TrEMBL record:
Name of the protein described by the UniProt record: Long-chain fatty acid--CoA ligase
A Pfam family: AMP-binding_C_3
Top-level taxonomic group: Bacteria
AMP-dependent synthetase/ligase domain mapped to chain residues: 23-460
PANTHER family xref list: AMP-DEPENDENT SYNTHETASE_LIGASE DOMAIN-CONTAINING PROTEIN (PTHR43272:SF32), LONG-CHAIN-FATTY-ACID--COA LIGASE (PTHR43272)
A cellular component annotation (GO) from this entry: membrane
Entry-linked InterPro entries: AMP-binding_CS, AMP-dep_synth/lig_dom, ANL_N_sf
Tagged with keyword Ligase: yes
Keywords in alphabetical order: Fatty acid metabolism, Ligase, Lipid metabolism
Species annotation: Pedobacter psychroterrae
Amino acid sequence: MVVFNEFSTVPSLLRNVVENIHKPDETFLIDKKKSDWEEISFKQTLENADAVAAFFLERGIVKGDRMGLMIENSPEYVYYDQGIQQIGAINVSIYPTLSEHEVEYIINDSGIKAILIGNTFLLKKVLKIADNCRQLRYIIPAFEEYTKVAIPAGLDTEIISFDEVLATKNRISKTQLNEINILREALRPSDLSSLIYTSGTTGIPKGAMLSHGNFVENVKVCLQQIPVIDETETFLSFLPLSHVFERTATYHVCCAQGCKIAFAQSLELLAKNMGEVRPTVMNCVPRLLEKIHDKAIKSGTAGGGLKAKIFLWALETGQEYRKEKEAGKHPGIIMSAKKAIAEKLVFSKIKEKTGGRLKFMISGGAALPKNVGEFFGNLGIKILEGFGLTETSPVMAVTEFHRQVYGTVGRVIPGIEIGIQHVENKEMISIQTHETFNEDFDCAEGEIIVRGHCVMKGYFNKPAETAEAIDKNDWFHTGDIGRFYKGNLQITDRLKNMIVNAYGKNVYPTPVENVYLKSLKIDQLFLIGDKREYLTAIIVPNKENMQEEFKLAEAFFQKPELFIEDQEIIDWIGKDIKKHSAELAKFERIKNFKVKRNPFSMEEGEITPTLKAKRKVIEQKYAESINQMYAESVKAD
């Protein structure tokens, strides 16, 4: 049974667990540095956090100072964060994939005093810009090989290993511990906890100011909405802690409930780590679920024959069973028997690849295609969808565990209001709260706006941008388009993404792109058509499936040409474009497309760290090819 106690700041979450839920020597963090998984207790975590706090207090760091982190998910992230937060310093986590220019901007804009660094590549990146960052006093590598990195001559910034920081625990005094306790107890919910810089699809990054109260209230209401999370859970963490979704929905939730956190080694080793850790809960993004879906379908139907027939029969059986349960009915003996057979022959094998213990996964960061959510539901793997932004700390709505409406992001969380505002005349279409929930309620779509405890304090050093985002009535304007459907919030697309064709028809790209992404031949799709007579697209094929179909060597993907001109490959993709176009209105159908050789990437500045396409960047970068598409004859109808 969960022991739930009051807490009001980020450092008080973990202290509450040790006082009321778990013994200090019980496992909190699980990490794999080399060949074995290491278990780290709550006591060890708090001792290391106190060491970090004492180290920085000795060097004059005070409440309100900004402290940087550019490191992969790891115990070191937790020690550093817990240490600085309890003395009132502010966490500024930087995406490791950002360019030198962007990292320099964030360090200077926030005034970072010290930065924790996770690997050689990131250290070299920071060393190149350190002399341009006048407030940066300490660079703290959290890896052994840092001594092999060449240090620029005349570097003013001091380099101190994180091992040296943690060694402070061997000489920490009672006086220092008392000072840390006083500072921690003096924190208030209104105090700033973190600056999280929005990656943004346009413009320069803006630092969202999130308070302790923002984070803690978000955790409380999410646990209220999903009460099945308890102190026995093991979360597998792989989404970046530099992003607000993983920070709140894994790290802070685990700190609040005393759940274990296992850190995945990398995205490439995620499948292996799932089998080793056997998590009960995971937070993920739709793209991961889409890839699992695609691989399962491909594996289950490969070669046809009896195996494929059994696989498809099992999915159909799972769907019938799911619909019966969701309708509140009790499946009969025959249906239950069929489901048990499907579970043994098909579903259990898929589940075993996740470790076999998953209670559910939470999908966030973008809309999950309805067919993907239904697929997992048919398997008996529950996917809860959530919606939020960096500026809303982040959760605004999340699926209730007992009530699933596929294609929506769930019920409004307690304590906030979500409004749907007409895009053009700004009239309010509807305002809904947790208490006004009605599973029969629908409304028209408009911009999603929100006010309440989840909304940030504003953008750091940017009063004009803050005033533009939060109006005089305290409504934060998300820039997302959506509506309420069956009482749940449903996301249509980003307001800025909207395409208006030459005939004045409005097209939201995401729902259209998701229709075409049902194809196992397509990995990414970018829709084009603003002020044009018809839609076109840049398509990134599924590399594995294309290699298998056309027997392509790796050298094919190393060619300098950005786009594939092989007519066989174009026709191969074109068949699926034509097939899925039948699901769309005529003005939503792709009439022409280019096949991109390699994926859109963060390194090329084409997508954000949360995998959203930077529309202006892509349209400008590939303008010549886009114009060429509109000059050619139509390839797909």
